[in-house]
Amino acid sequence: MVKGTDIPGPTLSRLPIYYRWLIRAIDEGKSVISSRQLGSSSGIPAAQVRKDLSHLGELGQAGVGYDTRKVAAVLRDVLGLEDEKQAVVVGAGNLGRALAGYPGFERYGLRIVALFDNDPSKIGRIIAGKSVFCMDELAGVVKRLRVEMGVVAVPAEQAQTVVDQMVEAGITVIWNFAPTHLYVPSSVLLENEDLAARLATISYHMTRRKAQEF
Amino acid sequence: MVKGTDIPGPTLSRLPIYYRWLIRAIDEGKSVISSRQLGSSSGIPAAQVRKDLSHLGELGQAGVGYDTRKVAAVLRDVLGLEDEKQAVVVGAGNLGRALAGYPGFERYGLRIVALFDNDPSKIGRIIAGKSVFCMDELAGVVKRLRVEMGVVAVPAEQAQTVVDQMVEAGITVIWNFAPTHLYVPSSVLLENEDLAARLATISYHMTRRKAQEF
DNA sequence: TAGCATTTGTGACAAATAGCACAAACTTTT
DNA sequence: AAAAGTTTGTGCTATTTGTCACAAATGCTA
């Protein structure tokens, strides 16, 4: 990590988009790409791309563009995609299984080491190459394998209980897919992936668009 | 819809949070709630809550607070949660199944009417009470049931093909869960739910936090 | 080499968003 | 009825984010 300053939120959320296009460009054999090309397909203005990337250092070359491999490597470094991050998924329902088998995670350094569930019929099963354990074993596995992240894929009603167990077990990052608000100590990093909330905003746009059809 | 003005994006994304707390308050029998109470658990300052809600009209009463039922009703109206929105899910893998059975959607007016897949072994199955059809039947079902929304739950490689078929079939809103960029006509509303990108930003915070532990 | 076309990085400006503070409206207490 | 305590809505200010424009750097062409 070269720069010590924080990356602004909006910029941060655009970096993965750039990263994806860089990978694509590299796959196509391109060794250099311009800010215009990087952003245009996603509707991001070239100036925005340049300002975003300027947070990571002076990566481009005037009159030429950005070295695809170099910038991709910097992004991997800044985003920490090369750091091995161990995670457990709690909840072996459809969502838990989908997440356990999600192909994108491994490529971004996230290693799901195990699943947990309360349902005895699920315990012992193998999902996407990972075993399903009983909740009692959570603390043991977390400590033994130094798991940092817990993914919550249980119904809303059980989410807080699960999170309490995760925190108790020593997990410090929680990625919550249950549509509910969770309480965690301030030392724990909580990220919510709230599909219901997302749907609500989409619904707003749908309704609004229909109203404007006149 | 009373107000004709657009709701700012940041405000819009907080409305579902307020809605959830309102529902909770109603369940607890509270008929009135203050801006402080509405926001505090989620770390949103009271002034922010008030300004957000002021976009929807003058809903509160000075010295008293907000009528929980009234504001909840306004939010349902503004967000269009009461409008029946028909959707199909393409991809009957774990993610598609998880989405088809997601309990939150129905309560927000989204009705998933069917799933679609290419895999012959999946066609004809019933998932969360909905049938899995062959892709050939997509256009027919979309037209017959007036489906507006298509949910993309297939691997990245197949996503563009699926989206093209959706657009061809007459779908006007696409909620994409595949980790890839998609091209759609400007008349189609595309919303991306990119878990890989989301993971990348979480990864940044994890890495950063570790670096600051010194 | 000179001239022209690209393209970056950034300073200056514009727009959007957040935070503050207080008058006005209402409730409760004395 | 008056005083004290809440709480809203909003004008004003501060901060953050986005856009523009251009000097400086580079490559290409003749």
Question: How would you characterize the overall build of this protein?
Answer:
2 copies of one chain form a homodimer. Chain A is an alpha/beta fold and 214 residues long. Chain A is 45% helix and 19% strand. In chain A, β8, α8 and β9 form a beta-alpha-beta unit. In chain A, 41% of the residues are buried. Chains A and B meet through α1, α5, α6 and α9 of A and α1, α5, α6 and α9 of B. Chain A binds a DNA duplex (30 and 30 nucleotides) through α1, α3 and β2.
Structure at a glance:
The structure is a homodimer of 214-residue chains. By secondary structure, the first copy, chain A, is an alpha/beta fold.
Q: How are the elements arranged and paired?
A:
2 copies of one chain form a homodimer.
Chain A: H1 9-27, E1 32-33, H2 35-40, H3 46-54, E2 60-61, E3 65-67, H4 68-79, E4 85-90, H5 94-100, H6 103-107, E5 110-117, E6 126-127, E7 130-134, H7 138-144, E8 149-152, H8 156-169, E9 173-176, E10 189-192, H9 195-211
Chain A binds a DNA duplex (30 and 30 nucleotides) through helix 1, helix 3 and strand 2.
